[in-house]
Design goal:
Layout (H helix, E strand, L loop, with lengths): L3 H29 L1
Length: 33
Amino acid sequence: MLKVTDVAAAKLAAYLQAEKIDQAVRIALQGGG
């Protein structure tokens, strides 16, 4: 079974990855003009 900490860590990792993607998209859109 998954521990609560494992689930929290997975959610945090997914959140951070999504933030990186979102930031990259914003930079790409700004750079593209």
